[in-house]
Amino acid sequence: MDNATLARPPREAAAATAGAQPALLLGSVFVIATCGLVYELIAGTLASYLLGDSVLQFSTIIGVYLFSMGIGSWLSRYLGGSLLRWFIRLEILVGLVGGFSAPLLFVLFEYVTSFRLILYLLVGLTGVLVGLEIPLLMRILEGRFEFKDLVSRVFTFDYIGALLASLIFPLVLVPQLGLIRTSLFVGALNIIVAGVALYRFPETRPFRRSLTGAVVASLLALGVGIFFAERIQTYTEGMAFQDQVIFSKSTTYQRIVLTRNSRELRLFLNGNLQFSSQDEYRYHEALVHPALQALPQARQVLVLGGGDGLAVRELLKYPQVRHIRLVDLDAGMTRLFQHNAMLVSLNQRALLSPKVEVLNGDAYQWVRQDTARYDYIVVDFPDPSNYSIGKLYSAAFYRELDHLLAPGGRIVVQSTSPYVARQSFWCVAHTLQAAGFQTIPYHCYVPSFGEWGFVMAGRNSHWRPNGGPLPRGLRYVTTATIRDMLYFPPDMTEIPTEINQLNNQALVRYFEEDWGPYSH
Amino acid sequence: MINRRTFLQRSGLGLAGTLLAPTSLLHSCRPGTARAHIQGSLHGANHATGHVLRQPDRLPPPTRTLRTDVLIVGGGVAGLAARRELARRGKQEVLLVELDEHVGGNSAGGRNKVSAYPWGAHYLPVPDPRNRELLAFLQEAGTISGYDATSGLPIYNEYHLCHDPEERLLLHGHWQQGLVPDLGVPAAEKNQIARFFRLVEELRHATGADGLDAFRIPLDASSGDAQFRQLDALSFAEYLDQQGFTSPHLRWYLDYCCKDDYGTLAAHTSAWAGLHYFASRKGRAHNATAADVLTWPQGNNFLAESLRKQADSPILPHTLAYQLEETPAGLAVLCYDAATRHTMRIEARQVLLATPEFITRRLVAGLPNLARPALALEHVPWVVANLSVAGLPQGPGRPLCWDNVLYGTASVGYVNATHQSLSLNNHGPKVITYYLPLTGPHATATRQAAYRTSYDEWVARILAELETAHPNLATFVQRADVWVWGHGMVAPTPGTIWNPVRKAAMQPWQNKVFFAHTDLSGVSIFEEGFYQGLRAATELLAAAPPTANA
């Protein structure tokens, strides 16, 4: 290694600045101690933020971090040669790894299946690097203080830094900068320490030029990160949702937001709740099973919408289903539910099943060009809150579905709430009838949504609530539940409505009227 | 050395250049402005034609001769409808020559990577089911999918009916639903508006002493009763004054309607034509009403292309017919092919001129014993612009519709070419088509000024208007293409429609030359072009010499 070839700096030069240097190094102790603790706090906060269960997350993160610092301290004995050079290199590295830890974890959360592994690797790496710092500094200061002074001063500054960090992190940094900017900002402090050391110590002259480049490049990288932090996570969004926002992303088509609290995970698309992990089984079991239990011959299934894979999870419970084609507009959505560990465990790897084909495209264009025949079509679109989505509930659209339906096949359509949006619900049923289908409307109670409705449609009315066996292990749907769901109390019974056509968009108007009073 | 011959040829070549490719140049906006990044084409529908027609001797002499039974000159809606009718009736050897690259005339359309878009007419009201020929065409085009068994009414293809939401109007800074001013309009004015609609509803059902509908499409099927026809002598504005319709909001709306259909203001529109706009809408359908319209991303280019596809006789594009001569066997038509820069002589037994009146007049000038009267018509210049926009910042009120009109502006607003899209992605790029009729009492001067206006000036003018509704629109515009239609459409000025000269101008010349164009109707709408083509084709077949198909 080249360190060995470097001569120690001349004693005279060191002596000339001896008065200022120890103070500077002790100041560095203070700064790096603060930074080190902040990294630990960031990792703990992020882990409980993204994964929930904060006691467990904080405990394990602190444990791993402290243990890694121990490894770092132990490794410090292997560093020789110009210690100051090592120290400057180390600061640059700590600044980069620690600084980018938070943005990296946020970005990887979506893509990485084993997020925990990445998290602990990153925490471990930061810990090792931070663990090297103090022993290294103590060795640099070795000859400049008496040992008892050295130990006392270094640890005093170390613990003061820790106190400062624990106070400014929750009170100033997170509220003012947010997690990502805090992480990048603290990283920059480490690099500034490196830069100051590089210029205040004459011993650094031989390698000043090469390390200056590294310092400047690192600062620049962190600066760019700070500038774009807004795009990585919109902090103001946290205020719009009751719970902690653990993931948010704007795709070409929509804004996907995941929130969590101690009990549940919630998914929002453009601010509208799509499901709560607590009770989504009720919705998806009610959506899929009433029709499919009566289709023992169903081989080919088409799912329109439903990029969360939760309906697919229910479909896969039937051994006779051989192929499921899912068409969802948003690749961002299906990718999330194929790769994120938490979401993949929620949909039980449904979108990764070899029986499932995931296509990203416009449902309307897809059904107009598709030539396959399906035994079962599950239509799980967002509510008809605008004119573009309203077209996917039109008689013309349902006539296209008719072309895709195999003989004896059946369709189910999520049809909003028959209680809140009574006109809208019956408009969907009547529109399906106008397209030539026999319909069977039903509804269930989903706590996070309220009363929710569905309409089954087929070319015949041969459907029976006990048409075939239901899969084992369902938590909500039984034959008795299905019978129950068919009954509409007087406040939800059928009312006359118009047919939803492309040239009248009656449904969007009903939907506005129905939900209007609730949105103010 | 340039002798006279080559000089003339080169002049011809120069003209050919203007004829063939006036659009290939990409224009830019003025640097240093908010619109500096905007580029696009500036089309002017072949205003070089007039020069060629005035000086045909500057073209090279014919180098080849073609023979056909029937020659159709002009590939607008009337020419295409005639060509289709001849094919349906089994006529062989039909040839159509068209000046432009593409047929379709005012029903031109274009396409870019975002969407197809119209360059002219862009909708057809749901037609009166008595117009059987038009319905048969629409069924063949796939616009009518069948007929309801009980009512017998046509069922329209839902993808061709204009999707909801259809229209909105920017009034007092707020987008209201529908185009009839309503938001913040005083009660007295609203009463007048209601009275006007009661009046036109009455007229919609009115019949004359002859038992015929007072207002009908085609307009030649309307009643001859003088109590209605005399309305043609008045201007629509005078009529409205007489009837006590003084509400400024109503008068703005009626000016808008006249501009929308005719390119003229109410003061320059015949009262008969002004009322016809409302009272002729007698569409009925199983799944639509008289108020519904049919539309396509490419506008009426869909209809023009359907007409074209419903016959397979050959079409010669970029070919200018510039002279007509009588021959013992029929006629000879001299045509200039702007692509090959050659002149040819096309010999035909019969010729059907589906050309605007100012062209027809020059073409027939050399025919002997011509008794055809000259029609004194005015043509309104139009400017149509297609803007490709990355987005469209919206103001308060109703969301983006198919037809979007700004109260009190010179244009008739814009249509969203992507409106019929079935995609969920409604935030992506769009193409909007902006229509500006250049109204004014002096069409010729207005036209000359329009030809002199630069690309940058048009874009600036269009943006200035649209930015009142969509702030900073310029930054969203990715491309702007502009088309100046010098002779956009015929103006039904008072005295045009029921002038006996119009009927006389439709009369064939010696069973050899036939005339078809919306100029002969006095209003430029698709149904009239279709009717004129059908009528002339029928006359041509009835007059065909017995040896024609021997």
Automatic annotation (TrEMBL), chain A:
Binding site for S-methyl-5'-thioadenosine: Q254, D328, D362, A363
Location of the PABS domain: 225-459
Catalyzed chemical reaction(s): S-adenosyl 3-(methylsulfanyl)propylamine + putrescine = S-methyl-5'-thioadenosine + spermidine + H(+)
EC numbers, comma separated: 2.5.1.16
Protein name, per record: Polyamine aminopropyltransferase
Family statement drawn from the similarity comment of this UniProt entry: Belongs to the spermidine/spermine synthase family.
Membrane spanning residue stretches: 23-49, 55-75, 87-111, 117-138, 150-173, 179-199, 211-229
Organism: Hymenobacter mucosus
From TrEMBL, chain B:
Cofactors (names): FAD
Coiled-coil stretches noted in the UniProt entry, renumbered to this chain: none
Gene Ontology terms, MF aspect: oxidoreductase activity
SUPFAM superfamilies assigned to the protein according to its UniProt record, in alphabetical order: FAD/NAD(P)-binding domain (SSF51905)
Protein name: NAD(P)-binding Rossmann-like domain-containing protein
Species per Swiss-Prot/TrEMBL record: Hymenobacter mucosus
